[in-house]
């Protein structure tokens, strides 16, 4: 299993649409976002974050393929982002459509 950043974010549009059902909403944030995917024999999950304001990082999208849910992949992505950005941001906010 590995987690890495991707540049071609729209390559993973199917995952993005699992968490944000309207493409127009994704289009509003995707160009400014950083996206990380979790690969476990293939990409099974993603997390997309943006800088909301100085010191605050916001999760805009997090999704796990349905057949891979309830295995801790989402939690691993959140932990990864927390660790990666701990020296740059003092807070991590969740800004997904459901919350």
Question: Gist?
Answer:
The chain is α+β, with helices and mostly antiparallel strands and 99 residues long. It contains three helices and five strands.
Describe the secondary structure blueprint for this structure:
Elements: E1 2-6, H1 13-19, H2 23-29, E2 34-39, E3 43-53, E4 56-64, H3 73-85, E5 91-94
Parallel strand pairs: 4-5
Antiparallel strand pairs: 1-2, 2-3, 3-4
Task: Write structural notes for this entry.
With 99 residues, the chain is an alpha+beta fold. The chain is 27% helix and 35% strand. It has 3 helices and 5 strands. The chain has helices at 13-19, 23-29, 73-85, and strands at 2-6, 34-39, 43-53, 56-64, 91-94. The chain has a 5-stranded mixed β-sheet. Strand 3 and strand 4 form a beta hairpin. The protein is globular and about 35 Å long. The mean pLDDT is 93.
Task: Please state the overall shape, judged from the principal axes of the Cα atoms.
Answer: globular
Mean pLDDT: 93
DSSP strand (E) fraction? Answer: 35-45%
| Helix content, binned percent | 25-40%
Number of strands: 5
Distance between the termini: 28 Å
Instruction: List low-confidence stretches.
Output: none
Structural class: alpha+beta
Across the major sheet, the strand order is: 1-2-3-4-5
What about the largest sheet? Answer: 5 strands, mixed
- What's the tally of helices? 3
Roughly how many Å is the radius of gyration?
Answer: 13 Å
Quaternary:
single chain
H/E element order: EHHEEEHE
């Amino acid at each position: 299993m590995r987690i890495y950043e991707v540049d071609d974010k729209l390559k993973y549009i199917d995952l993005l649409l699992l968490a944000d059902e309207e493409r127009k909403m994704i289009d509003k944030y995707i160009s400014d976002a950083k996206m990380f995917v979790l690969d476990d024999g293939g990409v099974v999950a993603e997390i997309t974050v943006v800088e909301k304001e100085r010191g605050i990082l916001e999760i805009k999208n997090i999704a796990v393929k349905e057949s891979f849910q309830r295995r801790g992949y989402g939690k691993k992505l959140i932990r990864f982002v927390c660790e990666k950005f701990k020296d740059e941001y003092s807070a991590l906010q969740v800004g997904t459509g459901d919350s």
